[in-house]
Amino acid sequence: MMKPTAQDIAFYKALIFFNSLIPLAIILWDAAHGQVGVNPVEVFIRTFGVLTLLFVLITLCVTPLRKLLGWGFLIKYRRMLGLFAFFYGCLHLLTYIAFDRSWGFSSVVADVVKRPFIAVGMASFVLLIPLALTSTNKMMRRLGAKRWLALHKLVYAVAIGGVVHFWMIVKADVTWPLTFAVVAALLLGYRLLVWWRKRLA
Length: 201
Prior knowledge:
Layout: H1 6-32, H2 40-69, H3 75-100, H4 105-114, H5 116-133, H6 137-143, H7 145-151, H8 154-169, H9 175-200
């Protein structure tokens, strides 16, 4: 596969950027036209939550695709995908705080204590924050490659926490949580296998 040029990279980054915003545009369009059902707040919260987890898993796909298929160019887009996971995580949290809790922060704290799935989701989001804050080249240089890589392994905990959070929310049909769980298990299992093979070597 030919190495992409700077123009190619810029084009694909723009393509990823605008395509990553399409789900937001669709749900805003539906909301503006009254097509989000009888409980729009729940629809917004669930949609942004699923998008957060989706982008976390897409980000985790980059390394296996690079190593198994030789698609080294994908590393150029991993940061943007990770930041979109954080972006939709922020929308998920803000929608919950603003519309479900009416900006009542004491109510949020009480909800975290009372409902385990909220606590799991909140913990997963908190782990996303240092990943987003250290996503720049400057922060990578400041931390050093070894510490930066160790810190960004938190994304594995984020993926597990996100799947558990999703699973705990769904009360009946667990098809989608199960699908996300299988994908996360495959992605994390691949990394575990690589680590184990290195240990054996």
